[in-house]
Amino acid sequence: MSAQNQYIDVKGHMAESTMRIKDLAQAEKKLVLLIETAAEALSILSDEAPNDENTDQFVRDRAMTFRGLAERYFSLVNDIQFALRSHTHYLTKEASITSSANKIIPFKTSVLDQYKELEIWTSAIETVSQRIAEIKKIAQEQ
Question: How far apart are CA 34 and CA 85, in angstroms?
Fold first, then answer.
């Protein structure tokens, strides 16, 4: 069996995990292009007008170029966000299904919200304990 055929099922379809990894690789390439686009746009903003050209025409040309780069930038941001959201949604959905041996991608849901809630309640308990100690101290002084 060739290395490429190991990712194709009996019906000739590519495995879900393989398609998702390829899609994420495309998103990574778009991320690199996004950074390059931002750098190019910033370099246009820092260019100074040459002395021998019409300044107004130079500014218009630069503004049009910048506008095109800005449109490409926001289009890339949109594409990258869509890819990441769809994969995050897929992984979240897969993690919510009961544990099974046929899961391809292990995924743990975030517990940050529970951790923050615990942190808040711990702080509240400490504050209440301090207040009780203050009340006891006042009561003992009287």
Answer: 17
